[in-house]
Amino acid sequence: MKINIACPSTGMQKVMEIDDERRLQNLYDRRMAQEVDGTILGDEFEGYLLRISGGNDKQGFPMRQGVLTNTRVRILCKQGHKGYRQRRTGERKRKSVRGCVVGHDIAVLNLVVTQVGEKEVPGLTDDQVPRRLGPKRANNIRKLFALTKDDDVRKYAIARTFTNKKGVEVRKSPKIQRLVTPIMLQRKRAVKSAKMASIKKSKEEAEAYKKVVAQRQAEAREARRSLISKRRSSRKSAKVAASDK
User: Fold this and answer.
1) Its pTM surpasses 0.70
2) All residues at 6 or more sequence positions from 9 whose CB lies less than 8 Å from its CB, including other chains
3) Residue 36's closest CA among 112, 97, 88?
């Protein structure tokens, strides 16, 4: 079984292969997101804590969190599920995935270092790999450089310079997400004013409708009242004429 170990603090990864079944027995029946002792992999990982983040079997099917089995199953996927992209609206499809329990037929197991031990592991914790890309979100940039809300975040976006195919040196920086600009505030005010105007208009229309309905009902009552009075008068005159004869 191949073990892929990642250390987020250094940005390095190390791949090692373990064929000793007695050492692998300590990994079997463990679930994703569980932490294991580093001494399982060897004495060089003494004091390390490793979290199981995933893996795949010999045919390449990935482990799926929440599927409590150590075999391969076919689950019904829909929009929003991992490992599935909806082609048509409302489409659902069965996909083969592995359970979140480590079994003997796992080919590659991914581990993440959560606690570093006293000794350094060559190729994993003995060096630092700088991040190629910086944060994009405005709040994350502020957090990285300890900025306040008054500082201009655009000046602190991490950019890189490279030479393109035409031989021209180009500076490329990320588009900052969730950046509050005057145009954004203006749009927000415009949307709010349009919403309030719509609410006011609907209230005015409802009031006008109520007045029209009340007027029509009053007219209908008056017409019925006059009709009843006409009928009564006609009956009364008919009775008077009959009594005179």
Assistant:
1) no
2) 113, 116, 125
3) 112
